[in-house]
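Homework help board

Subject: predicted structure for assignment chain

Our instructor gave us this sequence and asked us to write out the predicted structure in token form, then describe one feature. I got the tokens but I'm not sure how to describe them. Can anyone check?
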Amino acid sequence: MQIVKKLLDKYIRGDERGIKAKTNILASFLLKGSSIVIGFLLVRVTLNYLDQTRYGIWLTLTSLIGWITFFDLGLGNGLRNKLAEALAVKDYELCKIYVSTTYAIITIIMVLLAIVFFVANSFIDWSVILNTDKALASELSMVAMIVFNLFFFRLVLQLIGVVLLADQRPAMSSLFNSLGNIFSLIVIFGLTYITKGSLVSFSLAMSGIPVIILGFVTVYFFKKDYSLFKPSIAYIRFKYGTSLLSLGIKFFLIQISGLILYQSSNILITQFFGPKEVIPYNIAYKYFSLMTMVLSIILIPFWTAFTDAWTKGDISWIKRSVNKLLKYWLGLSLLGIIFLIGSNKFYSIWLGNKVTVPFSLSVVTFIYFVTMAFTQIFTMFINGVGKIQLQLILSFVSAVLFIPLAYFFIKYFHFGIEGIVLASIIGNIEGFVFAPIQYYKIINNKAFGVWNK
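My token output:
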């Protein structure tokens, strides 16, 4: 016990910002660990409940929903930075204005989207979009209506997570995802006994549970911890939306580019190879995301911590933090080689003979995650200080090249699914090369022009 006490004493030492980050990292490890176990169990239970075609359809449909996420026009990320700056100087009235205005704008956007989708859905043939049997068209239309409309609610309610991130409490924000996974697992497991492979029931469970949880969480935190700046109609100031959008719209455009690069893979696989082939890709993706879990958890608090440090001029803290993160990345890369060597064995233990994942797909997915992890260290700082003009330009170039590259690799090199992952890796080269350069220019006061915008 004495040894444990000494380790904890050593761990929690440091400045207030560092202690907050460490505490959140430790809590996030515990939450993420349980969430990953539940996530793997959920895949296994889902494959027992849905056939592979319906599961592939679900994965592709959720990728399409990912496009809706970015219709907040980057306001979530804009709020995260602006609220963090206001909290750093304890201007709670400004906090209330930012929070109220963001909720108002996003609610308006989501209501309009819900109306448009309600009208458009009757004209959409989902069996064509999802490249599947025409007999499923009616079922898919109902599923789409359920999933999209519940997701519109979720986009408004999940702003409470942004508030927690701005307050340097990412672990608390992650808790809601863990709760959602736990309840989803319980419900899906129950469905295996009372229904037979119903995509409608599955969609209600997977989409409805997060909305219910976020609703309760929003009410709780704005009554307790954040009562000083809970949303209020009287504090809506649309003129402040300009400052939120000026930064937020850049994040929005970067996210759209990222969506094309990373979230459209399921759609491309469905169109080129059919919905069943989405499953091996997602299995490999989920497995290698384990490899980057440690660094991802460590990175989560740093966006807002970098904002806080930059606002207060604490450059030495930023440099020390980035150097530590690079050491963690190196260790992660070495660990990833072990993950790669043991991948086929892991797939076999996890899923038996239900799904076959080619080793070549594991190799390119490993490379993708290692390069992405390196880039994220520097983009966390760049996003935190809001100097994202260069990232916006390069992301746009990468997005334009991604689909032609994927088509080229599949059509002329016959790479299969691996070609899509290779196109993603090449698309990330801009971040792998330019993000570190921009960081060093900014931190050493040598950034001019587009490097400093």
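Reply (TA_rk): Your tokens look well-formed. For the description, you could write something like this. Confidence is low (pLDDT under 50) at residues 1-12. That's the kind of observation they're looking for.
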